[in-house]
Amino acid sequence: MLTDKQIRETIRQYVEEAGEQFYEEHLTMDARFREGNIDLFESQVSGLHHVLAHSNFSGDKNVAAGWDFDGDIQAEVGKLFGVDVSTVGRYDIQFLKACQAWTAATKQLYEDHLKRLHGEVVEPKRAAVPSEIPEVAKGPLVSEVVEPFLSDRSKRKDIEERTASGYRQFVQLFIDTMGDVPVTDVTPSMATEWRDKLLEYPKNKTKVKAYRDCTPRQLLSMDIPPADCLSKATVNNHLVHLSTVFGDLVRLQTIPTNPFTGHELKTTQQSYNQFTPSDLDLIFTSPVYMSNSDNRTGWKRTQAHWWLLSLALSTGCRAGELAQLRLDDVAMVDGILTANIVEDKATGQRVKTASSLRSIPIHPRLLELGFNEYLGALKGAGADRVLQGIALGSVKPVAPASNWFDRYRQSFLQNFKAERKTLHSTRGTFYSAAYNDVGMEILSQADSRGF
After folding, report:
1. Mean pLDDT score of the chain
2. Do 334 and 245 belong to one domain?
3. How far apart are CA 28 and CA 431, in angstroms?
4. Residues 91-104: pLDDT tens digits?
5. Is residue 132 part of a domain?
6. Same domain, yes or no: 163 and 109
7. pTM value?
8. pLDDT in tens, 188-226
9. Do 441 and 354 sit in the same domain of this protein?
């Protein structure tokens, strides 16, 4: 590895020898060639100035081509120091320092030669070598790239505020735990270290009193039970967000490679399990489906809550899609009552992916249970959503519905939590039934004893 002393002495020798050569050439130069040399050296000086101002000396086009500079800086430095450039790491700091020192010295040599061409007397010793080799530019801090990334992304594709907030949150957690470092200093090993720290970080930090007022670094110093820490799937989600931000920096040539790729953890357990036939029996004979049940503490019973699970199990829709479904989105198509999952900025409706935009026929069993009459009553009451009795979350539309089911599960479906069965289990249950060609028989377990 090159040392600072070696860089200084080699560059000093280069300046002395090249300076003498320029001086001698100037003394013997025919006046007819001076004008052409002036144009050439002005272009070279401009190119070298641009490189010094904008390049990180990592071998990108700013250095290799040097814009108006015709040479290959790394090749010149490799020749000067006797280094095989093909064996040098792209971010070998000492070699990059040598590139920067050579560029600064060469620019000074060219500027002195230009002065001679314009008639000034400049001795070779005028070209000086700095006593200290400056640090190579390392690029913006991690905190400085988030907003430009979000701004650019919003111009190229729509990005919801909750998605933008997620990026800010994940990047801030990286800064809080690893430091606000230049993006060029973030390495794959640092990404791995951050991933492993997240496995010791508490989930639901703001909901647990013992963790609520602690800083991220304080939390990482605590002995938090594994059951209270972030899951592998959640950690992977953090990595995906950081990988997206740093992948954009690669696109912009701010960094050469993405340090956050290839660190995902293997997950073998789904975030939730499907409902079994016996689970469905339990659900559809629980209080919300019994006409003689009264409201009880910790749960709420409205027509919307009654229809929520029935719709989810018969359509395979995400609960968030059903929560946003408007009465205008349910219409007759070729004689079949159809629910249309749409995205509409005017109404605030949004979907997870483009493929989520679809039309789904309403199953005849729902019509037998009175779904059409339910829709008519909603329209008569001036409602605008199919599940009007369930509020919409401001960040996640599905949140109130999901929270309600969690409370209801705690009261009447107590084994579901340990079995990792949630409101979102309806989607997997539907697709499993469809895959196994069971059809919609699961709905036959829901009778009309409710609303």
Report:
1. 82
2. no
3. 86
4. 577 788 888 888 88
5. no
6. no
7. 0.53
8. 999 999 999 999 999 988 888 889 889 988 999 899 999
9. yes
**52 found inside a domain:** yes
Do 353 and 436 share a domain, yes or no? yes
Quick one: 236 and 289 in the same domain?
no
Would you state the structure tokens that stand for residue 75, as one six-digit string?
């090749």
User: Mapped to the 3 state alphabet, what secondary structure does the chain carry?
Assistant: CCCHHHHHHHHHHHHHHHHHHHHHHHHHCCHHHHHHHHHHHHHHHHHHHHHHHHCCCCCCHHHHCCCCCCCCHHHHHHHHHCCCHHHCCCCCHHHHHHHHHHHHHHHHHHHHHHHHHCCCCCCHHHCCCCCCCCCCCCCCEHHHCHHHHHHHHHHHCCCCHHHHHHHHHHHHHHHHHHCCCEHHHCCHHHHHHHHHHHCCCECCHHHCHHHHCCCHHHHHCCCCCHHHECCHHHHHHHHHHHHHHHHHHHHCCCCCCCCCCCCCCCCCCCCCCCCCHHHHHHHHCCHHHCCCCCCCCCCCCCHHHHHHHHHHHHHCCCHHHHHHCEHHHEEEECCEEEEEECCECCCCECCCCHHHCEEEECCHHHHHCCHHHHHHHHHHCCCCECCCCCCCCCCCCCHHHHHHHHHHHHHHCCHHHHCCCCCCHHHHHHHHHHHCCCCCHHHHHCCCCCC
CATH code, domain with 426:
1.10.443
Which residue among 126, 153, 172 closes a domain? 126
32/155: higher pLDDT: 155
Q: Is residue 121, in this structure, part of any structural domain at all?
A: yes
Mean pLDDT is lowest, of 96-105, 145-154, 275-284, for 96-105
Q: What is the domain extent for residue 422?
A: 277-445
* Residue 262 placed within a domain: no
